[in-house]
Amino acid sequence: MYRLVWTARFTRAAKKFAQAHPDLRPRLAQILRDLESDPLQPPLRLHPLKGKLQGLHAVSVTYGYRITLTLKVTKKEIILLDVGSHDEMYG
User: Fold this and answer.
1) Domain that holds residue 69
2) Which CATH number goes with the domain that contains 14?
3) Mean pLDDT, to the nearest integer, of 56-78?
């Protein structure tokens, strides 16, 4: 089991995301549960980021939306940083 750490930024972004996309609330909740149990599950599509976000990882909520995070495997800790559209995250 991994421990999810909700940063203030992620908390605000998740609230805003859930309000803007009520249809994706169940999907977001499932992604967070899956991250907690095992972030390396293939359906999460966990991948390292490049460029200005190097050192961070992302998982897909849908094709167009991502969650960025810091994954600390040694501590079994996942620090949630942001959630938003692909363009918002990488643009």
Assistant:
1) 3-90
2) 3.30.2310.20
3) 89
